[in-house]
Write a structure and sequence with these properties.
By secondary structure, the protein is mainly alpha-helical. A hairpin with a 5-residue loop joins strand 1 and strand 2. Helix 1 packs antiparallel against helix 4. It starts with a helix and ends with a helix.
Amino acid sequence: MKLPVSTEWLLHCATSLAQLGAGTTASAAQLAQYFDLPAASLAKQLQALVRAGVLAATTGPRGGFRLARPASEITLLHIVEAVDGPSAPYECREIRRQGRGALPAEECRSPCVLAEKMAEAHEAWRRSLAATSLAQIIDGLPPSAPARTRRRLTGTP
């Protein structure tokens, strides 16, 4: 499965925001500079996380983005689905019924075994993402990472 590059951007941005102190925000420009990303594109992508209730956005001189709820309540699946939607990446088009190799109708009464296996793999992937919160990701970082992120992203200790 190949996800758009924007998914990686938003996973990293949400992880970085999770490392900030409570109530601390970072602007799209700060996040773009932090990761060397195009600011206008990132700002549009961050809005997808706001619409999904993962991030909250504020305007004004101290405006920016912050987590909309605790990091322990935001899973990787929330972020991925905010960007890419919930649909499965594999769609069976029943090509087993086409061309010179077409199977007879009586052999196609049950679902395609390939479609079943792809659906199983997709569900396993979704379960794994749903079982991993941003808090768990933060716990897996080196102990110095959150302070370094706060300092470099927002200039605060």
